[in-house]
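task queued by scheduler; priority normal; single chain, no ligands, no partner chains; default sampling; output format set to structure tokens
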Amino acid sequence: MKYYTIIPAYNEEAFMAITLQSLAEQTVLPAKAVVVNDSSTDRTADIVHEFAQKYPWIKLVNKSSDAVHLPGSKVIQAFNAGYETIDEDYDIIVKLDADLILPDNYFETILNTFKNNPKAGMVGGFAYIEQNGKWILENLTDKDHIRGAFKAYRKECFLQMDKLRVAMGWDTVDELLAKFYGWEVITIDSLKVKHLKPTGANYDKTARYKQGAAFYTLGYGFLITAIASAKLAMRKGKPSLFADYINGYFKAKREKKTMLVTKEQAKFIRKYRWAKMKKKVFN
């Protein structure tokens, strides 16, 4: 199987070389790796250029955009800019962050999983962050969720769900839509990815309001939003975030923000979320 990877990058000179070296050390190399330099003001582009001279499968794409780091929209706009430069002669498309250390068998294991399970639509490992000299699980989401930092999609699944949404919540709606269309989302415990920059490190209060708005545009409804908001705020160790999320939800509702899913998909999502919650309570 052939895989392409696209890496959005903004001011990642501290981690860019580490990520690309990790990719170059894979037991199965990508057919193409496109790094999208999204208006960086540091040496990100220079580092990518140096690697591209050594590894012909690496390509640098430069993109101009606003420097404001809001989750979702900026990164997926950069991803899409990279996607526009590739052909569709791939089996698996991968979105990677520019601050990762992948185990050297990461993509070999991912590809074997896709090969062995024709219903596998998305596959990924788990993110670990360094705390007090130890690498621990970055436990912001359930273990059946693949982090947005390293998403691998079967082409048929990726195209069926109409690629990625340019909005916060893109890395949740993709999995929900994959399940809506009958694909499986598979996580692999043995694949431990070192995430060098904690998720949300650069997000401000505006971004936190967007989390609540994302719950609205996913079609959660208020009750599921309240439960999800409380859960996420507690996992982040910041109970005050709950109010930000709820305010963001009602702001999006008042403004009638465009939904990321159809009514039929939203109905499926609510049913799926309720079933998952009931399973946790009664099992």
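post-processing summary
- Residues 209 and 247 are 7 Å apart (CA to CA).
- Strands lie at 3-9, 32-38, 58-63, 92-96, 100-101, 120-131, 134-137, 150-154, 184-195.
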